[in-house]
C-alpha cells in the first residue's frame, strides 16, 4: 500500500483505465493544434450566382475536411475584376444579398469564415474582409493599402482605411438584407484581432503583404497574433510565384502562420489569377494549392502545431526588445480552431477537443431549422482521405517543398488555362487561327493543343464540371454521341480551325510547316490563296487614279512597297473573321438549316428579331474527320442554301443569332491573334492585321520565350510535336514582298534590331523606368563588350524613334493575356501618350555623352601609343557608366536643335508592319 502511495496512486485512482491518461495527453497536444483551410476560387466578375456557389462549396469542403477556419479570395462575392462596376450600387447590393443567403444557411455553423466583399461605411466604399461564425458577422475589416500601380486602380473604386494601428473599432450598419436574416443590425468595423479559444487571428488583404511596412509585422510582433489570413486577387506574371514564396517565408521566419488564398482563372479581363493558395508556418510550407488548374474550387487544408510558433518566438532574444505597446482592439470568438475528433473516436467524452457545437450557436434561434446552401454544379478538390482526417486530429501537417515551373512550362499552362475560361464563358464554339508557319502563330496553335490536353485530362480524371462545359461547347454528349472526342488530338480537331493564307510571296517552306504542325496537333486545316483579294484592291485604286503600285524590288517607292505589304496583312484579318463566322456552318455537313430552325425556336414567338447579328448557326463537328490533314472548304450551300431567304436575312430581317447559338454552346469561332510582346513594343506589325483578333494568348510573351517554349513542346517527354523544331530554326519572316536578288525578308533586319535587343529595351523602358538618356547609360555598361558607344547610342535612338512612331498601334491592340513585366499594353498596364515629339533634347544629351567617352578613349589610346581597337572597361564602371569627363559634360548647357538624324542608321527598318 505504501509503495502504491509512493507512486502517487491511491485506491480510487488505480481504478481509472490507463487509456484515459493517454487520451488526456492527446487532448493537451490537440489544444495546440489548429485545423485551417485556404482556397483557390475560379470567380467571374458579376457572376453573383456562380460566385456564391463556389464560395459555399469551398466552405462545405473545408468543413468536411475538419477545418475550423476558412479563408477566401479577395472580393470573392462580386469577383475581383468588376472594375468600374464597383462604382454601381447594384454590385454592392447583390454582393450582400449573396452574403445574406450564406448566413441563412448552416454553412458557417462551427467554422470561422473570412470572406471578401465590398462594403459601404459612412458613405465610403471599402474593400473588406468580413469575418463570420455561426451565422453572425463578427468583424468587417477594411483594406488599408490600395493596389494602384500597373494593372490595378483600386483607389478609383475604394477608399483606404487610414486609421492608425490600434484605433478603436467603429460601428458598421449591417445592410437590411442581412439583418432580416440574422437579426443583427450593427457589426464592428476596423482593424482588430480575433481572439479564439486557443489562438489569435488577424487579416491582411493582398497589396498589404507587398507594401513596404505590411500590417502583419506589427500584428505578429506587437499584437501577438499567431495566424494571419490574406485573401488575394493576385494575377499571374512570369516567375512571380517565386516572389510570393519569398514573401511568406520572410513574413513567418520569426514565428507565425500565414494563410494565403487567391482567385484562379480568367474573371473577364486580360489577367489570369494563378491561384497558388498556401499555408506557411515558421518559414516552411505545410499546404500548397495548384498554380494552374481547371478546377473551379480547390481547398487546401492543413493541421498546424501552434506550439512550434510559440517556441520559435520564445527563442527570439530581440522580440521583447522591439515589441511596442499597441492596444489593438479585439473581438472574442467562441471557437477553438483545434480539430474535432473524427468518428473513430466518438467514444470519447462529448466535450473532448471540440469547439463550439453547431447546436449551441448564438446566432441560431430556438426551433430554427438548419438550412443548406445550393452548391449544385460546382466541382471541388481538397477533400482529405479518411486516414488523413484521423491523423489530422493529433498530428501537424508535414512540410511541403514548393516546386516552381520553368518559363517554358508557364508559357504552356498560363495561356492555356486562360483560353479555356475565355472559351467556356464567351459562348463560342472554338477558335480560328491564321497559321503562317512562323514561330508566333505556331506557338498559339501549340497553346491550344496543350489546352485540349489538359481539358481531356480533367475529363478522364472525372471532373464533371469540365465535362459539362465541354459537352455544351461541342453540342455532344460523351455517353451518347459517337463524335465526342476520345483524346486531345480529336478535341483539337473539333475546336481549333487553322488556315494558311498564302500569297505569291509565300514560300513552300512555310506552307509545309503550317500543314505539318496542323497534322501533328490535329487541327482542322485549310490552305488558301488570297492573291485575288489583294489584286482587287490594287485594281480599284488603278482604275480610279491610274496609279499602279509596285514593290521596291520592282522599282516602286517605299511608300508603295509598304502599302502593298499592308493590304496583304489586312486582307488576312478580314478573311479570318469571315471564315470564323462561316466555318462552323461549313463543318455542320448539311445540319446548318436544322440548327437554324432550332435556334429560331428558342426565341420568343419562334421568330428572329430584326437587326440581330449574323453568326453561324451550328458548331456540330464532322464525326468522320480526324487528324489535321488539309481539307477543301465546301461551298456556302453546304449548310443552308444560298438562295434560301434564311441564309441572307431576307425574311423579315431573319438572320441567325449569336445569343441562341451561344446558349447551346454552338456558333462562332474566336479569332486568335499572334503578335508577341516585342513586336508590340517596337510597333512591328500592321494595324488591323493578324494582331487584330478577339484575344491573343501570346501578346505579352517575348519572342525568345516563345522559341524556348516551342523547343520544349517539340520534345517527346512534353508535347511531342517535332514540326516545331523546324519552325524554331527558320528565321522570322513576314513574306509580304518579292525577294530582291534572292535575299530573304527577315524581321530582325527590317526592324533594325534583334529580338534579344528588344527584350533589353523593353525591360529597361518599363521595369527600370528608363527614358532614352538613362537607357543609354545602362546599356553602355551592359553592352560594353558587344558594341562601341556610338553603335549603342544609334540603337537606343533608333528604338525610341520607332517606339514613338508606332505607339498609336497599341491603342487598338487585341486584348492579350498579361504575362511579361514589360508588357506595352496601354489599356491598363503601360499608360503612355500615342503622339510623341522628336526627343531632341534627349538625343542631344546622348550624343554629347558618347562624344565625351570617345574623346577620353582616344586620349588614353594616344597616351599609351596603342591603336584604338576597343573601349577599355575602365570607361564604363558599373557604378557609373559615364566616367568623370562624361559626367562633367552633362552639366553643360544644351542648345536647342531639330530632330537628330543619324546618317548610319537613318530611318531604316521603319515599316508599318
Automatic annotation (TrEMBL):
GO terms for molecular function: ATP binding; glutaminase activity; NAD+ synthase (glutamine-hydrolyzing) activity. Residues 355-374, 601-658 are annotated as: Disordered. SUPFAM superfamilies: Adenine nucleotide alpha hydrolases-like, Carbon-nitrogen hydrolase. This is NAD(+) synthase (glutamine-hydrolyzing). Keywords: ATP-binding, Ligase, NAD, Nucleotide-binding. Residues 34-306 form the CN hydrolase domain. PROSITE patterns: CN_HYDROLASE. It is an enzyme of class 6 (ligase). It comes from the Eukaryota. Pathway: Cofactor biosynthesis; NAD(+) biosynthesis; NAD(+) from deamido-NAD(+) (L-Gln route): step 1/1. Its EC number is 6.3.5.1. Residues 363-372 have a biased composition (Basic and acidic residues). InterPro entries: C-N_Hydrolase (IPR003010), C-N_Hydrolase_sf (IPR036526), Gln-dep_NAD_synthase (IPR014445), NAD/GMP_synthase (IPR022310), NAD_synthase (IPR003694), Rossmann-like_a/b/a_fold (IPR014729).
Amino acid at each position: 500500500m505504501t509503495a502504491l502511495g509512493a507512486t502517487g496512486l491511491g485506491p480510487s485512482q488505480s481504478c481509472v483505465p490507463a487509456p484515459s491518461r493517454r487520451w488526456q495527453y492527446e487532448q493537451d497536444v490537440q489544444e495546440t493544434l489548429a485545423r485551417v483551410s485556404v482556397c483557390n476560387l475560379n470567380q467571374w466578375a458579376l457572376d453573383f450566382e456562380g460566385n456564391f456557389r463556389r464560395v459555399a462549396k469551398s466552405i462545405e469542403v473545408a468543413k468536411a475536411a475538419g477545418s475550423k477556419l476558412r479563408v477566401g479570395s479577395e472580393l470573392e462575392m462580386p469577383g475581383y475584376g468588376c472594375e468600374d462596376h464597383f462604382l454601381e450600387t447594384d454590385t454592392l447590393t447583390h454582393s450582400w444579398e449573396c452574403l445574406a443567403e450564406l448566413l441563412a444557411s448552416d454553412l458557417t455553423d462551427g467554422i470561422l469564415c473570412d470572406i471578401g466583399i465590398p462594403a459601404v461605411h459612412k458613405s465610403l466604399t471599402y474593400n473588406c474582409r468580413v469575418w463570420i461564425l455561426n451565422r453572425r458577422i463578427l468583424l468587417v475589416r477594411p483594406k488599408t493599402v490600395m493596389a494602384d500601380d500597373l494593372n490595378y486602380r483600386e483607389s478609383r473604386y475604394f477608399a483606404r482605411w487610414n486609421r492608425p494601428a490600434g484605433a478603436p473599432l467603429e460601428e458598421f450598419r449591417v445592410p437590411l438584407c442581412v439583418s432580416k436574416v440574422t437579426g443583427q443590425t450593427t457589426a464592428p468595423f476596423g482593424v482588430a484581432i480575433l481572439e479564439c479559444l486557443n489562438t489569435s487571428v488577424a487579416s491582411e488583404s493582398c497589396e498589404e503583404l507587398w507594401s513596404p511596412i505590411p500590417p502583419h509585422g506589427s500584428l505578429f510582433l506587437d499584437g501577438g497574433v499567431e495566424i494571419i489570413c490574406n485573401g488575394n486577387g493576385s494575377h499571374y506574371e512570369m516567375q512571380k510565384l517565386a516572389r510570393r514564396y519569398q514573401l511568406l517565408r520572410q513574413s513567418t521566419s520569426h514565428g507565425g502562420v500565414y494563410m494565403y488564398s487567391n482567385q484562379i482563372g480568367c474573371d473577364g479581363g486580360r489577367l489570369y489569377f494563378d491561384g497558388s493558395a498556401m499555408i506557411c508556418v515558421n518559414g516552411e510550407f505545410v499546404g500548397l494549392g495548384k498554380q494552374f488548374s481547371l478546377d473551379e474550387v480547390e481547398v487546401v487544408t492543413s493541421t498546424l502545431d501552434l506550439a512550434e510558433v510559440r517556441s520559435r518566438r520564445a527563442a527570439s532574444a530581440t522580440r521583447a526588445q522591439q515589441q511596442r505597446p499597441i492596444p489593438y482592439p479585439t473581438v472574442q470568438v467562441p471557437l477553438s480552431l483545434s480539430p474535432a475528433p473524427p468518428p473513430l473516436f466518438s467514444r470519447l467524452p462529448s466535450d473532448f477537443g471540440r469547439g463550439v457545437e453547431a447546436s449551441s450557436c448564438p446566432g441560431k434561434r430556438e426551433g430554427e431549422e438548419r438550412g443548406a446552401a445550393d452548391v449544385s454544379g460546382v466541382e471541388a478538390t481538397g477533400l482529405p482521405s479518411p486516414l488523413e482526417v484521423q491523423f489530422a486530429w493529433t498530428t501537424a501537417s508535414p512540410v511541403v517543398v514548393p516546386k516552381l515551373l520553368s518559363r517554358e512550362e508557364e508559357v504552356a499552362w498560363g495561356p492555356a488555362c486562360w483560353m479555356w475560361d475565355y472559351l467556356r464563358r464567351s459562348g463560342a464554339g472554338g477558335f480560328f487561327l491564321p497559321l503562317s508557319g512562323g514561330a508566333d502563330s505556331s506557338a498559339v496553335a501549340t497553346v491550344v493543343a496543350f489546352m485540349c490536353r489538359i481539358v481531356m485530362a480533367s475529363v478522364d480524371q472525372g471532373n464533371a464540371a469540365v465535362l459539362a462545359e465541354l459537352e455544351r461547347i461541342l453540342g455532344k454528349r460523351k455517353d451518347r454521341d459517337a463524335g465526342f472526342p476520345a483524346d486531345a488530338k480529336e478535341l483539337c480537331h473539333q475546336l481549333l480551325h487553322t488556315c494558311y493564307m498564302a500569297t505569291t510571296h509565300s514560300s513552300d517552306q512555310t506552307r509545309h510547316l503550317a500543314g505539318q504542325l496542323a497534322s501533328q496537333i490535329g487541327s482542322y486545316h485549310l490552305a488558301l490563296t488570297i492573291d485575288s483579294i489583294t489584286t482587287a484592291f490594287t485594281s480599284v485604286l488603278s482604275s480610279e487614279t491610274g496609279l499602279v503600285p509596285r514593290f521596291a524590288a520592282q522599282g516602286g517607292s517605299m511608300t508603295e512597297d509598304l502599302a502593298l505589304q499592308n493590304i496583304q496583312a489586312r486582307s488576312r484579318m478580314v478573311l479570318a473573321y469571315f471564315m470564323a463566322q462561316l466555318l462552323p456552318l461549313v463543318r455542320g455537313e448539311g445540319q446548318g438549316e436544322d440548327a437554324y430552325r432550332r435556334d429560331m425556336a428558342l426565341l420568343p414567338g419562334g421568330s428572329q428579331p430584326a437587326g440581330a447579328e449574323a453568326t453561324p448557326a451550328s458548331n456540330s463537328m464532322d464525326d468522320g474527320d480526324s487528324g489535321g490533314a488539309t481539307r477543301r472548304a465546301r461551298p456556302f450551300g453546304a449548310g443552308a442554301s444560298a438562295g434560301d431567304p434564311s441564309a441572307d436575312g431576307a425574311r423579315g430581317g431573319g438572320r441567325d443569332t449569336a445569343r441562341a447559338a451561344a446558349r447551346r454552346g454552338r456558333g462562332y469561332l474566336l479569332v486568335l491573334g499572334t503578335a508577341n510582346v516585342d513586336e508590340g513594343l517596337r510597333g512591328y506589325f500592321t494595324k488591323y492585321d493578324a494582331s487584330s483578333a478577339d484575344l491573343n494568348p501570346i501578346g505579352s510573351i517575348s519572342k525568345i520565350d516563345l522559341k524556348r517554349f516551342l523547343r520544349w513542346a517539340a520534345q517527346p517527354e512534353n508535347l511531342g510535336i517535332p514540326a516545331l523544331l523546324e519552325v524554331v530554326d527558320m528565321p522570322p519572316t513576314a513574306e509580304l514582298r518579292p525577294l530582291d536578288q534572292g535575299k530573304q525578308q527577315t524581321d530582325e533586319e527590317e526592324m533594325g534590331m534583334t529580338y534579344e535587343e528588344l527584350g533589353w529595351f523593353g525591360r529597361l523602358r518599363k521595369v527600370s523606368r528608363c527614358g532614352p538618356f538613362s537607357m543609354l547609360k545602362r546599356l553602355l555598361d551592359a553592352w560594353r563588350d558587344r558594341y562601341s558607344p556610338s553603335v549603342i547610342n544609334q540603337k537606343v535612338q533608333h528604338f525610341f524613334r520607332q517606339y514613338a512612331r508606332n505607339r498609336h498601334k497599341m491603342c487598338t491592340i487585341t486584348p492579350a493575356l498579361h504575362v511579361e513585366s514589360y508588357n506595352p499594353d496601354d489599356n491598363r498596364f503601360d499608360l503612355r501618350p500615342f503622339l510623341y515629339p522628336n526627343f531632341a533634347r534627349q538625343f542631344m544629351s546622348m550624343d554629347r555623352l558618347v562624344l565625351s567617352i570617345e574623346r577620353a578613349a582616344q586620349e588614353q589610346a594616344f597616351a599609351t601609343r596603342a591603336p584604338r581597337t576597343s573601349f577599355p572597361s575602365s570607361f564604363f564602371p558599373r557604378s557609373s557608366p559615364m566616367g568623370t569627363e562624361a559626367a562633367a559634360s552633362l552639366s553643360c548647357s544644351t542648345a536647342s536643335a531639330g530632330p537628330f538624324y543619324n546618317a548610319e542608321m537613318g530611318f531604316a527598318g521603319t515599316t508599318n508592319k
